[in-house]
Amino acid sequence: MENEKYLFVVSGAAGTGKDSVVKALRTAHPEIEKTVSATTRAPRPGEQEGIDYYYRTTEQFQQLIANDEVVEYNFYNGNYYGTLKEEVNKRLAAGKLVVLVIDVHGAANIRRMFPGATTVFLLPPSVEELERRLRGRGTETEESIRERLATAQNELAEQDNFTLKLVNNEVEACADELYQVICQRAGLAH
Predict the structure, then answer these.
(1) Is the pLDDT of residue 5 over 90?
(2) What is the pLDDT of residue 31?
(3) What's the confidence (pLDDT) of residue 43?
(4) Where is the Guanylate kinase-like domain (predicted)?
(5) Which H or E run includes 119?
(6) What structural domains does the chain harbor?
(7) What are the helix (H) ranges across 3-73?
């Protein structure tokens, strides 16, 4: 697709601040769109169809996968989560800037399906800082933290497969850097 230059993937190991950086980016630049993911988990109180997620049954989600209608997906805690191809295509067709926040495996699918997309790997300032961030969440058991750190090491090994790397020392500064990259790669004045 001609507008693939408007598609940006932000990925990296757990705890690198992907969601925080993209949230800061979109707060400063609301014209940049983020797709709505599909999931098989039940809506939480206050969540709305098409705004927070597209809620699907397991059978519906598996059919989307079989029909090649999902650009990336994951099975986590007993539920599917993924990005619908239609969500990406409709935004690109309209010439919108699109940012996807996905794991390193999903990023590989995006590279295959949208070779003109820019993939950005967010790095923590150090592995020690990554561990500090994961522990600072206060939501994980020691075993879970160890598992996430082992997974993070594997994810960090994938960084050279990305278009470029940014170090997230500070969220706002990293979001500004990401915006500069988006403007340059999409050919926009900033």
Answers:
(1) yes
(2) 94
(3) 92
(4) 5-183
(5) strand 118-123
(6) 1-32+97-190 (3.40.50.300), 36-95 (3.30.63.10)
(7) 18-28, 58-66
Say how far apart CA 69 and CA 83 lie, in whole Å: 9
SS3 (DSSP) at 72:
strand
pLDDT digits (tens, 9 = 90+) for 59-112: 999 999 999 999 999 887 799 999 999 999 999 999 999 999 988 888 988 998
Cβ neighbours of residue 182 under 8 Å, at least 6 residues apart? 8, 32, 97, 99, 118, 188
Please give the model's pTM, rounded to 2 decimal places: 0.86
**CA proximity to 175, closest of 27, 49, 15, 5:** 27
Would you state the torsion angle of the CA atoms of residues 149, 105, 99, 157, taken in this order, to the nearest 10 degrees? 50
- The pLDDT, as a whole number, for residue 190 is 64
Q: Which residue has the tokens 């999931």?
A: 39
Confidence of residue 141 (pLDDT cuts 50, 70, 90): confident
Radius of gyration of the chain (CA): 16
As given in the structure block, the two tokens for residue 20 are 């925080």
Long-range contacts of 74-78 (CB under 8 A, 24+ apart): 74/103, 74/105, 74/106, 77/41
Sheet with 79-84, side-by-side order of all strands:
54-55, 38-39, 79-84, 70-76
Q: Are 143 and 186 in contact (CB under 8 A)?
A: no
Positions at the binding site for ATP = 12-19
Q: Tell me which amino acid residue 92 is.
A: L
